[in-house]
Design a protein that fits this description.
about 375 residues, alpha/beta, 15 helices, binds ligand FNR, flavoprotein, oxidoreductase, FMN
């Protein structure tokens, strides 16, 4: 992985190594993908102030996110089907995050289960929850997260219904993939991926199969998930989940200051400014452009995190300068995973850490907790 110098290098390698259906699943947004593109493009518009002749020795990136000590203010975002980018993908990514001292967030729709992650790591991880109609399933998932000693619950609010991704429809996305001639032909060009999959038994939705009655084959599972997301989700459900969980609660998918105020009234620990990586409402603003308004509305009351479009340490520092306590990365770690398994995720984190560290120094700071708007060029944000 030493020849990988930036996240784009990892992306290109992942594109070569991961079957088309799963690469496209990661590297796409909804409808015209305008929000997906804006997420990263808008970071480029913000300019940093270069400072010189300041002491750059003894730098630190350590801080806290939702009360948890982190080696740098970057967490792994929850992503569904991660175990399809690489065999046992969630376990490998969680291990890489643990080695780096940053939080790993497991998706409800992961391939490896909560129990798999707990068995293969020792640091507490975070669990992401989708609100399903089947409240008994949610109760069980919360209990399983508690038993696995998850240290925070990340409740995703922006997927009551699914945004359409054209590529997934064209590719007939399913996990494991259906063995059509087209899929077999494509997989035969990805021998590493195939060998990995043959070596694992984890190929279905690990948090669901065996935990929901009547779901034991992939056909009925996809029907189940499509039916299960709750379009009637309301703030009273958030309060119900908060009561049942009783631990640290982070709300994910807030893009509007009015919603941020309602989230603050629920007494949650943090919220994530996120448009789901441009996978839900196409036409929504980029996360980085929505961040300042939300920080202004509720930043004094609760911690603000953000995700969407982060592809470098420079992007991380811009988000921090605009008031985020920490950020999450989705596709960058998926590219790392597809490119090189655990070593690829570690390389992704290394790249971002080094870029963040050096950029902080160029901007005249030695402690990431001191970074504020003063590092940004006025008129560019
Ligand atoms: C996601 N995201 C997501 N979010 C969530 O709360 N639960 C999930 O299961 C998923 N699944 C998922 C799959 C894939 C392939 C992607 C790319 C994203 C959204 C994710 O947590 C995060 O918000 C975005 O990925 C952030 O944008 P970047 O970093 O990918 O640009």
């Amino acid at each position: 992985m030493r020849s990988m110098h930036c996240i784009e290098d990892l992306r290109k390698l992942a594109e070569r190594r991961v079957p088309r259906m799963f690469y496209d699943y990661a590297d796409s947004g909804s409808w015209t993908e305008s929000t997906y593109r804006a997420n990263s493009d808008d970071f480029g518009k913000i300019k940093l102030r270069q400072r010189v002749a300041v002491d750059m020795t003894n730098r630190t990136l350590a801080t806290t996110m939702a009360g948890q000590r982190v080696a740098m203010p970057v967490a792994i975002a929850p992503t569904g089907l991660t175990g399809m980018q690489h065999a046992d993908g969630e376990i490998l990514a969680a291990r890489a995050a643990e080695a780096f001292g940053i939080p790993f967030t497991l998706s409800t729709l992961s391939i490896c289960s909560i129990e798999d992650i707990a068995a293969h790591t020792s640091a507490p991880f975070w669990m992401q929850l989708y609100v399903m109609k089947d409240r008994a399933f949610i109760e069980r998932l919360i209990e399983r997260a508690r038993a696995a000693k998850c240290s925070a619950l990340v409740l995703t609010l922006d997927l009551q219904i699914l945004g359409q991704r054209h590529k997934d429809l064209r590719n007939g996305l399913s996990a494991p993939p259906k063995l059509t001639i087209k899929n077999i032909a494509n997989m035969m060009t990805k021998p590493r991926w195939c060998m990995g999959m043959l070596g694992t038994r984890r190929r279905g939705f690990g948090n669901v199969i065996g935990h929901v009655s009547g779901v034991d084959d992939m056909g009925s599972l996809s029907a189940w998930t499509a039916q299960q997301f709750d379009p009637a989700l309301s703030w009273s459900d958030v309060e119900w989940i908060k009561r049942r969980w009783g631990g640290k609660l982070i709300l994910k998918g807030i893009m509007d200051a009015e919603d941020a105020k309602l989230a603050a009234q629920c007494g949650v620990d943090a919220l994530i400014v996120s448009n789901h990586g441009g996978r839900q409402l196409d036409g929504a603003p980029s996360s980085i452009s929505a961040l300042p308004g939300i920080v202004e509305a509720v930043g004094k009351e609760l911690e603000i995190h953000m995700d969407g479009g982060i592809r470098s340490g420079q992007d991380v520092i811009k988000a921090l300068a605009l008031g985020a306590r920490g950020v999450y990365i989705g596709r960058p770690f998926l590219y790392g995973l597809g490119a090189g398994g655990q070593a690829g995720v570690a390389r992704c984190l290394e790249i971002i850490r080094n870029e963040l560290d050096i950029t902080m120094a160029f901007c005249g700071h030695r402690d990431i907790r001191d970074v504020g708007r003063d590092i940004l060029l006025p008129g560019t944000f």
